[in-house]
Amino acid sequence: MRNVLLGAGLLVILAGVAGAVLAVTQERRLLFPARRAPVGTALLRSVDGQPVWLERAGVRSEAWYLPARGGAPGPAPLILFAHGNAELIDDWAREFDEPRTWGAAVLLVEYPGYGRSGGAPSETSIANAILAAYDWGSARPDLDRARIVAYGRSLGGGAACRLASEREVAALVLESTFTSVRALARRLGVPGILVRDPFDNLARIAAFRGPTLVIHGARDALIPVEQARALHAAAPQSELVIFSDCGHNDCPRPWPRLLEF
Q1: What does the pLDDT look like over 102-138, one tens digit per residue?
Q2: Among 61, 66, 170, 193, which is most exposed with the fewest C-beta within 10 angstroms?
Q3: Are 172 and 161 in contact (CB under 8 A)?
Q4: pTM (2 d.p.)
């Protein structure tokens, strides 16, 4: 009888382990639906951009550098942009035309395993890519190291918060961003302990002492607007902008508000 009970207990444990492994695997598939991209520079040439290859921790990642098109003479400020989880830098090549006319340069950072980059996506590998991008930009004499802005959208907010916690950035911009992946997982009934890539934005933004702009759509069904309010409440020097008539992927570019900020 004892052997039967031990066997049944072992089966329960194995089933639990299998379920946990499946949940962890699914978590990464949902969090990082990486898309590949064809080799080619026609789009990049059309926006007067330059490819940049970054290497850190043995992984080679791509970035696109979009020089400023106006502004005062001298080193330009840099917007370092991290995109959403199902996006590519290719999707954003034309979206930053307006800030470039202000005199801001832009660096679009691709994630490992996305586009043409090597490696595989994870919180650690994405952090390495964004840190390498910052180090590349801060070393250029035509860019102002004191005016590097970390801008993250959705998943990219996690990359931007991580950057702000490890490098000196002039400001932080979070668009449609969550408090943490664990908080999102709990909403779906997944135990937070199974999340391998927590992206704890709430803790990192609370420790950041620079100016922060939090942008969100009131109708966001993917990341509730309450999470934007929580980020704003936690950030010592933050402004909150809520667009009343959009959701997660259909909000207008916030260039007027960003320029004011």
Answers
A1: 999 999 999 999 999 999 999 999 999 999 999 999 9
A2: 193
A3: yes
A4: 0.89
Q: Is the dihedral of CA 176, 212, 123, 134 positive or negative?
A: positive
Q: What residues contact 166, with CB distance under 8 A and at least 6 apart?
A: 127, 131
Alpha helices (H) in 167-200, listed in sequence order: 181-187
Q: Which residues pair with 54 in a beta bridge?
A: 61
CA 16 to chain centre: 32
Q: Which two tokens stand for residue 15?
A: 């089933």
Residue 148: helix, strand or coil by DSSP? strand
DSSP states of 28-92 = HHHH----B--S--HHHHHTT-EEEEEEETTEEEEEEEE---SSSSSSEEEEEEE--TT--GGGG
Cβ atoms of residues 214 and 164 within 8 Å: no
Helix (H, G, I), strand (E, B) or coil at 237: coil
Q: How far apart are CA 171 and CA 237, in angstroms?
A: 10
Length of the chain: 261
Tokens of 104: 């801001």
Q: Are strands 212-217 and 238-243 parallel, antiparallel or unpaired?
A: parallel
Which residue type, as a one-letter code, is found at position 28?
R
Exposed/middle/buried for 108, CB within 10 Å: 0-12, 13-18, 19+? Answer: buried
Q: What is the pLDDT of residues 201-212, one digit of tens each?
A: 999 999 999 999
Tokens standing for residue 192: 């937070």
Residue 149 to residues 73, 138, 158, 161, 163, Cα–Cα distance (Å): 19, 11, 14, 11, 10
